[in-house]
Each structure stands twice: as structure tokens, then as C-alpha cells.
Amino acid sequence: MKKALVASVALVALFPLGAAAQERTLTISVYAFAQDDYKTIVYDPFEAKCGCKLVVETGNSVERLAKMEANKANPVVDLAAVSMADGLAASRAGLIDKIDTSKLENFSRLYDVAKDPNGDGMSVGYTFYATSIAYRSDKMKIESWADLLKPEYVGHVAFPNVTTNQGPPALYMLGLALGKDTPDLKAPIEALGEKKDEIVTFYEKSSQLVQLMQQEEIWAAPIGRFSWAGFTKLDLPVAWATPKEGQTGGMNVLVMTKGSKNQDLALQFMDFWLSTDVQTKLAEKLIDSPANKEVKVSDKVANNITYGEDTAKNLKLIPSAAALDNRNGWLKEWNEKVGQ
Amino acid sequence: MFQNRAEALALALPAAIFAAVVFLLPVAILLSEGFRSDGAWTLAAYTDFFSQTLNRTVFFRTFRLGLEVTAVSAIIGYAAAFAIVNLPPKGKGRMIGLVTLPLMISPVARTYAWIVILGRTGIVNEAITGLGLSAEPLRLLFTETAVFIGLLQLFLPLMILSLISALENMPKDAIAAARVLGANWFQVFWKVILPLTREGLVVGGTLVFTGSLTAYITPAILGGSKVLMLETLMYQQVSVANNFVSASVIAFILIVMSFAANILLKRLATARNRR
Question: Chain A residue closest to B141 (CA)?
Fold first, then answer.
């Protein structure tokens, strides 16, 4: 009996080894965010479906890109999730390949804005978010991004720092409102610089804003939709602005490494991630707003994410090329006009 | 303690190798970036750094705030430490416990508390408007004053604790003797207490000054980008501009400032000693 037990344990222990020999491995590189949920919603079901093994590398965009660049000759990662601008950066550095979208069954289900965000066929959007202004509807009325700078309001505004993800898009919209929307964002940065002493703060962490709003320190702040939920729980009348210039935001994309030996598997994984089922589950957990237009969610969920055809269509995103070419210039201009 | 030096060295070797490999070497590599350009050694990154007005403003602000926090914490620290040392043992233990308590709370939580206290509807502003000192709540948050208060609260306990141990090591009768010989309280402090506790002041001063120079969370939350400091500027350079050379320059400046402060304070202490 005992011998049999030992033998069976040994067999079971050996089994995964035997399987691994034939199993294929797909290495992906993603944001270190909500990984537990990703594992149950995306990774585990995909592994079961493809009979392959997923290796997940996490980190922020900058360091993951640097790693891909270092391993250019002999790529480790097969597929990566990065910001739209970093997708273009990877493409310019020759790190990624064109995506054969004819092999993606779910491609036609994507919102148009997500189909080819950088216009080079090298990336597909998997999630996006809107950025607009959360404001105290009893204290002020926001009809334009420029309203933030009105003398009666400006002393109650928190504006995102240029170093945050919300900073450049908000500046871009402010530029549109001021009628001077050059990619160097010179005009909006200058306009903010003139009011910098009155503006409450140039925030770095959006998590700080709910407290500032609750303390009536601020009445308004441009925020990403993913931070909106906290404001709705306040015992204050806070509204999501729909300025006449529109809303801005950001998008994350999937890219495929050049020279990867698992491109077909990477495409399968991409297709799985973009499927209505997976995108619905990710949306319901409030992790990623869906890029798949067939996703249907409850009003409660929809209120906390960026959702719907109209929203997607009207998002005014900063073109990636403009972001890449101007990032350092924005920071320099900002530090000169606002930072000191 | 050891029969021979070699034995002692051999025992110290693993720790030394560990420190060298995981700390000194990486730091050296990081810092060397700031001195290299196209494969040659150069100071270009440093002259470049100081040629920009913003960087100079930030440098002097960081330096000045560090000095202010150190000076004020020394003044408050002496008063507090002196009062605590003269308490009966039970009271002393309790007070030291109170002083150390903030050190056990995360700096993030402590800094967030200041947002509540210094806010427009916070206790400070309610007192100011309640007493009729100002009709409108004052703007306290996101100013240099807020950063100063935050840093002072963050590092004052270190100064108090260093001074308490220094004062306790001081001969108890020294003050009484000086008083009997006709010294006034200022002379007692300047000629007796200060020289006898300078070690504590050097330790406390170094901790407070280097702490204020390198604290990141407090200036980031209470000052934001309106009150940029070297450490918040360094974060920007790495996370946004991806400019590791500039960040390495700032890191080197901070390290030099910390060492300089320590050396200077020690010099000051021994200079008084020799006289």
C-alpha cells in the first residue's frame, strides 16, 4: 500500500515535467496592476485553453521598455501591454512587429479608436479611459476647460502635474479651449504659470484629491475616469464635466515583439484578451474599461469606468508622436513657468 | 578581543563584501553616470545642471529649508530634552515614549494628517478665523511653510532623543556649579550645556539635516510641484524625463551635502572643544 502510494505520488510529481517538455511558453510583459484579478480572468483560462504556459513579467512602462530594448537581439518577451505613446516609442526603436489583425477574431468588435491607435498597424488598444473635470456643481459651472482659470474659480482648482498621466492631456484640452493647441503645450503651460500662485496645487497622486475635495480645499480637478468612484461616495454634489471642447484621456495597447518565436500564440492571447467575455469580466471588476464595443455592463459599473460608443468616439487623445517628441520640452517649459 | 587582526578581519569580510557588492558598487556605478559623457570623464553634467535657474532655485531652497529645520529643531529640541531629563523617572519614560511615538507611524500617514490640520477647514485655519485674525482662511497647504512644518515634525524626535542622551551624560552638578559661580542662564547654556552636549547636537543635527535633504514624501505631498525640492526634482528626472544622468547629478549633490553637513558639524564641535 505504502509503496503504491509513493509510486503514485512520484508519478503525479513527474507528470507536469513531462508535459512541460512539449508545452509552449508565452512570455508577456504587463503593468504591475490588479495581477490577482488578471490571473483568474485572463491568464489561467488562457493557459487552460491553449495548453501552454504563460510567464508574466510586470513593471512600469519605462523599465519594461528598457528591458525590451536591452534584449532586442534575443527577445524574451513575446507580447507587451504599454501606453499608446510607449507603443509608438517601441515601434520607432524597431522593437515590435506589425499585427496581422486578420487573425484576430475580435478585432472587428473593437471601437474604432482602439483598432490602430498610432496609425502604424503595430498596436491594438485593449483599454482606454476618459479624462475630464470633477467639480462641485453647487459652487461652479464648468462648460469649458478654460473655465478652470476663471478668477472666481481658479483659487479652488487642483491641476494635474505635467509629470502625471493626466497632466499632458489636461493641458492639451486647456490649449484647445484657449484656441492655441500647439503640440509644445506652450500656451496652456504659460496660462497656468500666470495663475500658479492661485491654483491650490499641481497634484501628483489622484488619490489625494478625494480628501482635498472633502475638506473643501478644492472645488474642481481634472481627473481620469478610473479615480471617479471615490468622488461619488462623498456627501457633496460632485459632477463629471462634459466641456464643449470634449473629454481627453489615454489608451493602453498590446504590441508584439519583433523576432518573437511565438507570434501565433501571442496573437491567440491578444484575441483572447480582446474577447467580449474577458473584456466584460475585466470591466465588471472595474479593472479596465472595455475596448470591445459588444461589452454590456450595468449602470453601476458603467458609472465607474469609461464606457459607451459616444464616449469612445469623442475622446480627444494626444497623438503619440506629439507626446514622444515633446515630453522633455513640456517638462522644461513647465519647470520654467510653473515649477519655480 | 581577538588573538590576531587577521582573524577579526576574516570575520568582518563577509559583511564587507556584501555591503560592497550590493550597495557601494551599484551606488558608484550610478554616480559615475553623472561624470561620463561619450566615454570620457567630464563635469559637463554638473555645469549644465547649475546653469539652469530652476535647478539653482531648487538647490538653494533645499539647502535653506534643511538649515532652517535643523536650527529650529535644535532650539525646540534643547528645551524639550532639558525638560524631559529633569522629570522624575516615571514621567521621563512616558515623555520619551511620546517623543518616539511619531517615529512608529509611517511618514505618509503623518504627512496626510497635516493636510487635514493645515487645510482651509482645518483646525489651524478655524482658530485663525475664529480669533478674527483673518476674515478668509489662509492658504497654508502646498506652501514652503507647510513643507517646513512637515519636515520639522518628521525629524524633531530624532533631535530630541539625541539631546536627551547627551544631557543625561552631562554631570548633574555642572549647571548648579555654574549658577553658583554667577553665570546667568544664557551663559550656562552657551558655556556649559552646549559644549558638554555637542556630541548629541552633532548626531541630531546630522540626522535632521540629512533627513530633511532627502525626505521625499513630505515635500511631495505638502509642497507638490509648487515647492520643488532636490528630491522631488530627482523623481521627475527619472520617472518622467527618463534622464538618469541628471538624476545621478542630483543624487551626488545630496550625498555631498549630507557628508559636508556631518563634517562641518563635527568640526564645529571640536573647535569649541580646543578653546
Answer: A200
